[in-house]
Amino acid sequence: MIVISDASPLIVLAKLHRVNLLNLLFPQVIISAQVRDEIVTRGHARAGASEVAEASWITVRALQDSSSLVEAAAEFRLGLGEMSTILLGKELNADLLLIDEWKARRVSAAFNLPVVGCVGLLERLYLSGHIDDFRSALVDLARFSYLDVELLNARLVALGFEPL
């Protein structure tokens, strides 16, 4: 399975001390050089930097055709990390992109690339038995990220939990 991640899911899951649980779902996660730069180089003192730098299961892949990256990012009004994740997804025919940002998710869908964000990742971790309390995980997530309360409540109710 080819899984490519943008920066935000890795950073947010690092803040929750759960980034390494991704490796239980996916033996390998690929990030673009731009995403690595965003997390490890420019974000060296922030959450996720050391986790990403040290994770042997996260590999960096450069875009084969990076000439259109800046133009595409401007066209779709996305950051270089998000756009490089989408373009790398296209190049590698990815099975799944890990992206939180709403606009980037819409662009991914337009390119027929399946996407899941932090809520979906936590749900997968819960359903696979890697986290015990999905509700608490979502409450923690809400502390570090803007989340649509309706989305959170829909996922909670679907799994038999009380809404927030």
Could you walk me through the main structural features you see in this protein, from its secondary elements to its overall organization?
The chain has 164 residues and is mainly alpha-helical. The chain folds into 2 domains: 116 residues, Rossmann fold; 33 residues, no CATH class. Helix content is 54%, strand content 10%. The chain has 10 helices and 5 strands, in the order E-H-H-E-H-H-E-H-H-E-H-E-H-H-H. It has a 3-stranded parallel β-sheet. Helix 7 links the parallel strand 4 and strand 5. Helix 3 packs antiparallel against helix 6. The longest helix has 13 residues. The model has no long low-confidence stretch (mean pLDDT 91).
What's a quick, concise take on this entry?
By secondary structure, this protein is mainly α.
From the structure above, extract its key features.
10 helices; single chain; 164 residues; mainly alpha; two-stranded parallel sheet; Rossmann fold
Radius of gyration: 15 Å
What's the tally of helices? 10
- N-to-C SSE series? EHHEHHEHHEHEHHH
Extended strand count: 5
Query: What's the helical proportion of residues?
Result: 40-55%
Overall residue-averaged pLDDT value: 91
Cα end-to-end separation: 34 Å
Side-by-side strand order of the widest sheet: 1-4-5
| Percentage of β-strand residues | 5-15%
CATH architecture of the largest domain: 3-Layer(aba) Sandwich
Gross geometry: globular
- CATH hierarchy, class of the largest domain: Alpha Beta
How many strands, which pairing sense, and closed or not: the largest β-sheet? 3 strands, parallel
Low-confidence stretches: none
Let me know the CATH homologous superfamily of the largest domain: 5'-nuclease
Count structural domains.
2
